[in-house]
Amino acid sequence: MDRHTYDTGIIGNCAFLAHINKNTNVDWLCWPCFDSTFIFGGLLDKKKGGEFSILPEDEFTSQQHYLENTNVLITEVSPKSGGKYRITDFAPRFYQHQRYYKPLMLIRKIEAIEGSPRVIVKCEPVSEYGAVKLNVNRGSNHIQYLGGEENIRLTTNIPISYVFDEQAFVLNETKYLALTYGEPLEAALISTADRFLAETIQYWRTWIKHSSIATYYQPFVIRSGLALKIHQFEDTGAIIAASTTSLPESPGSGRNWDYRYCWLRDTYYVITALNHIGHFEEMEKYFGYVTDISFSEDDRYQPLYGVTGKKNLIEKILTDLDGYMGNQPVRIGNQAYEHIQNDIYGQVMISMLPLYTDHRFVFSERKDSVKWIEFLLNKIEHTIDEKDAGIWEFRNMANIHCYSNLFQWAGASAAEKMARTIENKELTDKAIALKERAAAHIESCYDPVRKVYTNSAGSSNLDASTLQLIMMNYLDPTSQRAKDHLIALEKELRTPNGLFYRYLYTDDFGKPKTTFLICAFWYVEALASVGRLDDAQREFANLLQYSNHLLLFSEDVDEETGSQWGNFPQAYSHVGLMNAAYRIAIKLDKPIFL
Q1: Which run of H or E residues covers position 452?
Q2: Contact 38, 130 (CB under 8 A)
Q3: What residues does the Trehalase-like N-terminal domain cover (predicted)?
Q4: How many CB atoms sit inside 10 A of residue 62's CB?
């Protein structure tokens, strides 16, 4: 069986994110927000998803690469009939007028690099997830697409007739296409596009220069950092799990979810990854998003929210779309917002810890410390003895999950440190008491015969999420109990080729058929933590083969074929890679590249 990979790269500017296929098409673009309707959705339906392609008249081959240390994507096309051309795709992002300029604008620069190739430009945006075909209005140097929420305009120096009629033309000079949403490009096209490109390249390269990235497999960590960055919706600080919806976890599985939202359960991992590469601005923006949500919730957090903090993410099935490679259903919204997930209070509490322990943050700015710590501790206290859906969001199964109580233990531990920092004895005592209650629940999951912690109290099932018992230092990584726990998990959940299942028991949709990539990176971290550093390095290097041609990683990987599945690219797979590389680099005593 052939290996399936996603043939797209991503560009973005922290306002939107687009997928550019090796075949030149914009396969996915949602405007105006990450979770809005797609404007181009060929990823889910070739006919109803619209098209924005720059193709030769005949067969062709193509290659893609990023401009080094940027989110600017190059696609080089070689038609069978001869000639060659290059498309440079980017989303403008740079600093001007004391703020970041990040318009809803996709710019495509087309250059002949060999011969005189003939190309055809097709631009057919849609709205309402393909249900609305936009009206096309032809101008002198632009085409307007009307009928959506806002006007979309394509400004170009290609003769409008050629684009309007989808007619081939000879690429004898550099051509530009600027697609805008709402606000059109009123400035001079060529000089503006070239200036935007130069400044965007400079922005990304400066961002990387200001990152503290370990030398260990540095190109992979750089690409992961760049990918994670454009999954942040800068307007609010939210970081989404993925920019796509309904890419199946495995063919025909029905596990097709909308991941264009921000999961609070991933807060700790994201904050940790950003901290490791020294990007505090993104950390603070993300923390601001969580703060806004926190003070709008009286009782409990939802597991996930929209990028603007929207709560009701009602799940709908779009029956008229084919789905990725025919995989249905196509879902928008995510029913998991209704679930109970009790690890998230600890996740948020831990994310606050650097604000109190890292002196690069100004402690005097934490004026509301007591209110914050008490607020979250009360949430932990309220939910600590409660059954929940767990990290994997089981739809019809509730248990006392080891992982949920681990993060309540870790959250209470963080609260204890913060309370001691602000010298508040009452909060310190409360945190210690909650830590002990959480630990009792965790211990109720221990199987002394198999020397392993199970996924929940009274269960015999194993779960990769309990690897975190080691990384969170609930178990002393040097202890025999930690080493035995890891051996039991790898014996059951590790595949012969180094991938890792979340679990192998039956859930609401049957048994999982693909491995979960972030779990494999957790496994690497656990190996490094217990001192099996050679194993950690071997396993880490092995996992890198599961990227696509641009070093981008999916959510799921098929054990037998190594195929990529699930929403793509998965921000948290990249977070897992970054954290695993950092942990190994620290153990090797090569933490920072100067």
Answers
A1: strand 452-453
A2: yes
A3: 10-155
A4: 18
Q: Is the Cβ–Cβ distance between 259 and 100 less than 8 Å?
A: no
Q: How far apart are CA 149 and CA 534, in angstroms?
A: 55
Residue 438 tokens read as 């959480």
Q: Given this model, what pLDDT does residue 399 score?
A: 81
pLDDT in tens, 160-216: 999 999 999 999 999 999 999 998 898 999 999 999 999 999 999 999 999 999 889
Q: Is 494 helix (H, G, I), strand (E, B) or coil?
A: strand
Which two three-digit tokens encode residue 464? 């990769």
Quote the tokens at residue 351: 């994310």
Q: Measured in Å, how far apart are the chain's first and last C-alpha atoms?
A: 44
Helices (H) and strands (E) in the chain, counts: 15, 30
530 CB-near residues (< 8 Å, 6+ apart): 470, 477, 478, 482, 483, 486
What are the angstrom distances between the C-alpha of 588 and each of 240, 480, 532? 32, 22, 12
Sequence letter at residue 251: P
Is there a contact between 543 and 556 (Cβ–Cβ < 8 Å)?
no
d(CA 545, CA 538): 12
CA distance 63 to 467: 39
Statement: residue 479 has pLDDT above 90: yes
Closest by Cα among 445, 366, 430, 434 to 399: 445
Cβ pair 105, 179 in contact under 8 A = yes
> Do the strands 105-114 and 38-40 form a parallel or antiparallel pair, or are they unpaired?
unpaired
One DSSP character per residue, 364-407 reads: GG-TTHHHHHHHHHHHHHHHTT--B-TTTT-SS--B-BHHHHHH
Q: Provide the 3-class DSSP secondary structure of residue 64.
A: strand
Q: Are 527 and 539 in contact (CB under 8 A)?
A: yes
Tell whether the model's pLDDT for residue 291 goes beyond 70.
Answer: yes
Among 53-62, 128-137, 322-331, 583-592, the least confident range: 583-592
C-beta neighbour count of 252 within 10 angstroms? 11
Q: How many CA atoms lie within 13 A of 530 on its CB side?
A: 23
Residue that the structure tokens 């909308």 belong to:
258
Determine contact, residues 350/473, Cβ cutoff 8 Å: no
* Beta strands in 26-104, from DSSP E residues, in sequence order: 26-30, 38-40, 51-56, 60-66, 73-79, 84-90, 94-96, 99-101
Spatial contact of 454 and 442, defined as CB atoms under 8 Å apart: no
Closest CA relative to residue 124, chosen from 133, 116, 115: 133
Q: What is the DSSP letter of 565?
A: E
What is the reported pTM?
A: 0.94
Contacts of 139 (CB under 8 A, 6+ apart): 160
User: Burial level of 450, CB count in 10 A (0-12/13-18/19+)?
Assistant: middle
Contact, 325 vs 251, CB < 8 A? yes
| CA distance linking residue 122 with residue 162, whole number of Å | 9
